[in-house]
From TrEMBL, chain B:
Residues 125-223 form the OmpR/PhoB-type domain. It comes from Dissulfuribacter thermophilus. Residues 125-223 bind DNA. This is DNA-binding heavy metal response regulator. The modification 4-aspartylphosphate is found at residue 51. Keywords: DNA-binding, Phosphoprotein, Transcription, Transcription regulation, Two-component regulatory system. InterPro entries: CheY-like_superfamily (IPR011006), OmpR/PhoB-type_DNA-bd (IPR001867), Sig_transdc_resp-reg_receiver (IPR001789), WalR-like (IPR039420), WH-like_DNA-bd_sf (IPR036388). GO terms for molecular function: phosphorelay response regulator activity; transcription cis-regulatory region binding. Pfam families: Response_reg, Trans_reg_C. SMART domains: REC, Trans_reg_C.
Length: 469, 225
């Protein structure tokens, strides 16, 4: 495993959860250890003090009744039964001379009480812990002044207590280690289980990233969160797949739409070059080339306009525009074309302005396209009806109807697609982009276009747009 | 008339220079923004044609620096981007007009003339006259050889635009923009139909035609022998 993998591993959720579990388990165990430890220590302490105080009381009364000799023999018996290394008993004269002890040298380990301690309160025994030279363990010691001024000292080795605590610490150390390990294992296991859906999605996503957009992530029953992820992921895939498909479709169409006029331009230029005799033929050619180029440029500009509109109109560019005026102007613009075909245009507009928030030039374009279509696909002597109405819920309704050739039912769902042209419209000049652009523009303004059509009878486009509130 | 051209594409530049020289302009050409700015600040120009995409300093910052230095030379911005936002940006920076590539050369010429006219205009004329055709802008009446011609408002606007640009070719898109305020070509023959109607009134009843079609390019109103 190289270093990069190690650093990556340390960033995984699994690793972090494992670490967290280990730490939490370890910490909790340690806290329990501390609580129990201090409780035990204080309990043992209390126990040993009780014993010492009881002993010194017994020895004191024995000394009172039996004198030094009885005490001396009692000291020896005690040392024998408890072990010479465990008990240290001693009786000294006020000037520090040993008069009775539990064994040879027992008093050596005990130090005489300092006078200030002795004098402070003579009735109460004084308790101390000492670490004498030459002994490996501490001694807990109680000292008391007798009525005759002699000092009795009773000490017990803490060896057993210390050994016990040491064992306790060892055991708990092992327990902490076990807890940390098992905590880590549990964490790792749980994280793996929780993350298994994620890693499955990741595996499939990287496969999709390599090219196959048709693959979908199956749901493996890992839980609601993972199910939501899988659904969202698959939805996104579906959207991407259809976008890519559409992009490919549009690209194919652009290539096709470019190829046809370019072939025409090239053909014209070639024949003029080979067979052209005089300037007028070359002038003719130049004019045709300009016309064809202009059409190509217009088509590309329309494509860009659709893309730009689809990506959203800049809020800043929106201003109050009078929709009624836009429609009136469009009708005025197209009137001569309608007259050429002897079409009658019936217009029904409300009184006053109809202000909507929009972008003037784009709206002009949307309605010009629709009106242009209505005229283009009308038969001679036909009728075009344009109406603008205020609707409820702050909407306006524009209807543009014609009595033209109509749209086949099989074409109807596709007419707003880029470059789509129905069989009947192929003979009419046009790029197949007009309706797509109109729809993009209207949608960018928060509206929509609907179409109903009867072949041979006519087509009606209904546009709804929100009015400015 | 002296014009500054800032354009880094040699081919575009040479076709603009050639065309503008034929129109009788003197041209200084800079290939990048820095040189362009130096020229604009040191020489007096009647107008400047500035591309947006330039090496070194882009066209918009060039115009910005010009304006900040107090140079008020009218500027036409050239750009390959034609969306409304781009236009607005170009004009807000201090450009006076905006032309999208690829453009019709005649349109560039017409726009340069319009800019210079606007910058040096003393007073708006109240009467336009080309040959026997007379337009009274105040009373909104048109006469040819003394005969009153009755025009509809849009026909009047179209003829006014042609007369204001008399002798210069105007394209369909220019007509759409100035007469109908449409900034796109509707790809139909609406302009042809309008011109046809106008001719019926202005040219047909008289001996000589004034409105001429330049095939593939546009229209020109002038008196020809």
């Amino acid at each position: 495993m190289c270093w990069k993998n190690v650093t990556n591993l340390s960033k995984t959720v699994t690793f972090r959860l494992t670490l967290w579990y280990s730490m939490i388990f370890g910490l909790l165990t340690f806290v329990v250890f501390l609580v129990v430890y201090f409780y035990l220590v204080s309990y043992l302490h209390w126990q040993i003090e009780n014993e010492l105080l009881n002993s010194i009381k017994e020895f004191e009364s024995l000394y009172k009744t039996g004198g030094i000799d009885a005490l001396r023999s009692e000291f020896l018996r005690e040392a024998e039964s408890e072990g010479a290394h465990n008990v240290f008993l001693c009786l000294r004269t006020p000037d520090g001379k040993v008069v009775a002890s539990s064994g040879a040298g027992a008093c050596r380990y005990l130090e005489p009480l300092k006078p200030d301690l002795m004098n402070s309160d003579s009735d109460r025994p004084v308790l101390r812990t000492i670490s004498p030279h030459g002994l490996s363990h501490k001694i807990r010691l109680v000292a008391k002044e007798m009525e005759d001024g002699y000092v009795m000292e009773v000490g017990r080795s803490l060896k057993n207590n210390e050994l016990m605590m040491e064992r306790y610490r060892e055991t708990f150390g092992a327990a902490i280690f076990v807890m940390i390990t098992s905590g880590g294992l549990i964490g790792w296991f749980m994280a793996r289980k929780a993350m298994s859906g994620v890693s499955r999605v990741t595996t499939i996503a990287s496969r999709i990233g390599k090219g196959d957009l048709r693959i979908r992530v199956p749901y493996g029953g890992e839980g609601e969160e993972i199910r939501a992820l899988v659904i969202a992921f698959n939805d996104m895939l579906g959207r991407i797949e259809s976008l890519v498909k559409e992009l490919k479709h549009v690209t194919d169409n652009i290539a096709h739409e470019l190829r046809t006029p370019l072939t025409r331009i090239r053909g014209l230029a070639e024949t003029t070059l080979i067979k052209g005799k005089d300037v007028s033929e070359y002038q003719e050619l130049a004019a045709s080339v300009i016309r064809e180029s202009d059409q190509l440029i217009a088509m590309l500009n329309t494509m860009l306009e659709i893309a730009k509109t689809d990506s959203g109109i800049n809020e800043m560019a929106l201003e109050p525009v009078d929709l009624k005026k836009i429609i009136e102007e469009a009708i005025d613009l197209f009137m001569p074309l309608a007259e050429e075909k002897d079409l009658s245009i019936e217009v029904s507009l409300p009184k006053g302005e109809v202000i909507i928030k929009g972008e003037r030039h784009r709206l002009q374009r949307a309605f010009a396209n629709l009106l242009d279509n209505a005229i283009k696909y009308s038969l001679e002597n036909g009728r075009i009806e344009v109406s603008l109405k205020r609707e409820e819920h702050g909407m306006v309704l524009v209807e543009i109807g014609d009595s033209g050739i109509g749209i086949d039912e099989k074409d109807l769902p596709y007419i707003f697609e880029r470059f789509y042209r129905g069989d009947k419209s192929r003979s009419t000049p046009g790029s197949g982009l007009g309706l797509s652009l109109s729809l993009s523009i209207i949608r960018a303004h928060g509206g929509d276009i609907q179409v109903e059509s009867a072949p041979g009878k006519g087509t009606k486009f209904t546009i709804v747009l929100p009015v400015e509130s | 008339m002296r014009i500054l051209l800032v354009e880094d594409d040699q081919q575009t530049a040479s076709f603009i220079i050639k065309g503008l020289k034929q129109e009788g302009f003197a041209i200084d050409h800079a290939l990048d923004g820095k040189t362009g700015l130096d020229l604009a600040l040191s020489e007096p120009y009647d107008a400047a044609v500035i591309d947006i995409m330039l090496p070194g300093m882009d066209g918009l910052s060039l115009i910005d620096s010009m304006r900040k230095s107090g140079v008020e030379t009218p500027v036409i911005v050239l750009s390959a981007k034609g969306s409304v936002d781009d236009r607005v940006k170009g004009l807000q920076t201090g450009g006076d007009d905006y032309l999208v590539k690829p453009f019709a050369f005649s349109e560039l010429v017409a726009r340069i003339h319009a800019l210079i006219r606007r910058a040096t205009r003393a007073k708006d004329p109240t009467v336009l006259q080309v040959g026997g055709l007379k337009m009274d802008l105040v009373r909104r009446r048109v006469f040819r050889d003394g005969v009153d011609i009755d025009l509809q408002p849009k026909e009047f606007a179209l003829l006014e635009y042609l007369m204001r640009n008399a002798g210069r070719v105007v394209s369909k898109t220019m007509i759409m923009e100035h007469v109908w305020d449409y900034n796109f070509d509707p790809q139909t023959n609406v302009v042809e139909a309008r011109i046809c109607k106008l001719r019926d009134k202005v040219d047909r009843p008289f001996q000589k035609d004034l409105i001429h079609t330049i095939r593939g390019v546009g229209y020109v109103l002038e008196e020809r022998d």
